[in-house]
Amino acid sequence: MPSIREWPETTRPRERLIAHGALSTGDDELLAVLIGSGTPGRSALALARDLLIRVGGMRGLAQADHTRLRGEGIGPAAAARILAARELGQRAMAAGVQGEVIDSPEAAARALGAHFAALDREEVKVALLSRKHRLLGVVPVYSGNVAGTSVRIGELFTEALRRHAPAIVIGHNHPSGDPAPSPEDLRTTRDAVAAGRLLGVDVLDHVVFGAGRWISLGEQAGNR
Q: Under 8 Å CB-to-CB from 138, ≥6 apart: which residues?
């Protein structure tokens, strides 16, 4: 099979990306650009397509660590480039909402969503908001095992009190992919709202993420 260098320029992933922009390229082509070069008999594009199939598509790629990528035949430098590109994308998304007004469940989901994009275990994070509900930052609270995590209500407010943030939005993910809230999620939300009243910190929402979807517990309760 000829190498990508021997293909017509209009079909080469890197040249297509440069000439026509990222939206003109498929997931496999963008991944091939990061992989860089193929192996004897297999192009970078073939490696990219095989990798996406083996890890379960883009969702699986978002959760694959360096060990998994190496185990799927990706070289150490290419694996590092893939991880770096993924992290840069997530950080860029997170930075893009910094300072936004969080005035709806949709805005809360935008503010927190990038922070849960590539997690294979349950985590809890808190968005800190100003008095006018502008996003000040997102801080981690808990990282659990694959079976879940246990939340201590007081620790949801640690950074908010330290940084004098008068309001927060709680976010956490369900690694199963189903964002439907559990009884524990509902209980945590009720306890957090009650604790926030005592501490002078408004709990505006609790958003649960799963497989690209999200559910606002505040919206479900009719609080937003």
A: 94, 111, 112, 115, 125, 126, 127, 128, 171
Tokens standing for residue 18: 């440069």
Residue 2 DSSP symbol = -
Give domain limits for the chain. Answer: 4-93, 99-220
Give the model's pLDDT for residue 6. 62
Question: By the 8 A CB rule, do 173 and 123 touch?
Answer: yes
CB atoms inside a 10 Å sphere around CB 56: 12
CB 112 within 8 A of CB 124: no
Give the H or E element holding residue 16.
Answer: helix 13-20
The answer on pLDDT for 145 being more than 70 is no
Fold of 99-220: Cytidine Deaminase; domain 2 (3.40.140)
In the chain, % of residues over pLDDT 90: 58
Which candidate, 132, 145, 201, places its Cα nearest to that of 169? Answer: 201
Distance of CA 182 to the CA centre of its chain: 21
Dihedrals φ, ψ of 203, to 5°?
A: -95, 100
The Cα–Cα gap between 193 and 198 comes to 9
Dist CA 27 CA 117 (whole Å): 16
Whether 172 and 124 have beta carbons less than 8 Å apart is answered as yes
State whether residue 80 is helix, strand or coil.
helix
